[in-house]
Amino acid sequence: MKYVQQVRGKWIVRVTVPPELRAIIGQRELVERDLPSDTRTREKMAHGILNRFFATIDKAREIFETRKNSPPIALSDAAKRHYSVTIAQDELKRASMPTPTDIQSEKDRALDMLAQEQREHRQTATSVINATTGFELMAGARSFDHNNRVRRLTALRASFRTGETRWIEPAVQQYIKDNHYDVQPDTRAWRDLADAFARAEIEALERTLERDRGNFSGCASDPLLTAPATEPDINSPVDTLDGKSMLLSEALSAFHNERTAGGHSLAAKTMGEHRNAVRMFKEFIGADIAVDAITKKHLIEYKNALIKTPNRYTMRFPGLTLPEAIKANAKRPEPFSTLASKTVNMKWLSHLSGILNWAQENGHIEFNPAKGVRVDTGRKTHHEPSRLAFTKSELYEIFGHSMFADRSAYGLKQWALLIMLYTGVRNSSEMARMKLEYIYIEQGIPVFDLADASKNQGSKRLVPIHNDLVRLGFLDHVEALKKRGETLLFPEWAQRPDKVNDWFNDVYLVSLGLKTKKKVFYCFRHTLATELARAGVPRELSKMISGHAPQEVASVYIQASPIKLMATELNKVKFDLPIPGL
Q: What domain range is 559 assigned to?
């Protein structure tokens, strides 16, 4: 098994980290040692380890690419974040300070302990210290915290005179790590960020000292903190430091406590599903999140992720989070089946909605963002009418129009209709974003490479270019586009994928008198499938051409080159279009 090696009698898994990612991962290679000697157990364990290793490398690759394309750090945004964090931490600390009642209770406990020791004649200097330490710490907690903030404020102010940054370094390093910035110590960018953090914390500490005096009206005055906000990044990690916010995990615990209070019971299986629902959403978000920070957009994006999630992903991709499992599954030659729409709706979205509904009813959020978010399972009100293939006579009408008479004048509309007919691609967007570099010769056969546009990103999908398109000059058209410096087959179509669909459905078919609910642009796909069957093309090859079967998998059962076989079978289809040259 690749990456599994025996070294000095011990089995290990070893994957080399690409050189450009080593600084991010912090290692030259990823290694797991002491695997079992039993082959079956070892390989099963190795699959999980490799999933984890490759997920680590993929994540590092994303960070690497983000760093290459990321804009400079917005110092104002960074300063505002640190200011807010410092204020929030102060509020949490104040809320946890001992009250006068707590202090008096601790004092009474200490006095009782001392009195008992005196009665038992076992009081010593050490026992007195032990008995009174808790009381002294509680009694002096507020004063100690105040003095500590005063000392820190003095040190931060002095840092602008001395150049010392050690007081603020941990916060700066954490910010750089959280946001995947490539900022090295002792660089100008690092010092600028450290100065911004120091200025923000000075302002925040001044606010806390004002609050010690009962003044809660103070506002930040530093220009970094009063500058207009930049565009918020909806994909950035959500802050959960606000002491007034309830985390999703806390909402789950409170929900379960309430549902099981007073002798009421909640099935262990249901509670387990609730916990899994929260875990999966946290994996998708990347952290535990405050319930009042969850938006409708989060839930819609989560729904879209769930329908791509492989079944039993924690078993099939052990050690991977939900987003990582989706990526790993897409890279498989034959991906595992994904969650059923009913499962997504009735289990994972429903459970999450139930928890958020509890949070709404208990005043933690104003509305339930999960309400109404569900996978459309083809309910009657949304059910699309069935599509029919175009008949020979209808194809004669469509392609017998005068706009197909002069091949030298072919443009977007002519080539789009012809290609859709002869390739049977799923939808217009697959061809609308086709790059010229993905049209090439494979094993002597001109092909479209649809891997970049297809549903299955991990599967290579080549579609032979029919001989009729070659006769009509399609390859010459491609070369002409390249010479003009174009990169897309249809630059105009790529800007609006529905452009040709709308024209064909609402204008062209209407003008020909062919428009019905069952005859639309998508029918070109049905038409090719019908003609492949009529031409006697084997079902497996037909599925490969149309993209219903992975070509890598199907080729195992077909003892020849798949692309040559597909070309041979595709060219059996004769549409007999009334176009000069065919």
A: 392-570
Query: Which of 18, 47, 69 delimits the end of a domain?
Result: 69
In a domain, 170, yes or no: yes
The number of beta carbons lying within 10 Å of the beta carbon of residue 271 is 16
DSSP letter at 244? T
**6 in helix, strand or coil?**
strand
Looking at the fold, whether 532 and 461 belong to one and the same domain comes out as yes
579 lies in a domain?
A: no
- pLDDT at residue 387 is higher than 60: yes
244: phi then psi, degrees, rounded to nearest 5: -85, -10
418 and 345 housed in the same domain: no
Residue 238 has pLDDT above 50, yes or no: no
Residue 61 and residue 85 in one domain: no
E-strand spans in 226-354? none
Domain boundary among 328, 347, 381: 381
Q: Is 297 exposed, middle or buried, given 0-12, 13-18 or 19+ CB atoms closer than 10 A?
A: exposed
Q: At what angle are helices 39-69 and 322-330 packed, to 10 degrees? A: 100
**Which H or E run contains 13?**
strand 10-16
DSSP 533-552: HHTT--HHHHHHHHTSS-HH
Q: How many of the other CB atoms lie within 10 Å of CB of 582?
A: 15
Residues 191 and 216 grouped into a single domain: yes
If you search the block for the tokens 């104002």, which residue do you land on? Answer: 76
Residues 559 and 512 in one domain: yes
Average pLDDT value for residue range 314-330: 88
299-335 burial, b for 16+ CB within 10 Å, e for fewer?
beebbebbebbbeebbebbebbbbbbbbbbbeebeeb
Write out the two tokens for 528: 């090719």
357 with 88: CB under 8 angstroms?
A: no
Where is average pLDDT lowest: 67-81, 201-215, 304-318? 67-81
Rounded to two decimals, the pTM is 0.38
Q: Is residue 234 part of a domain?
A: no
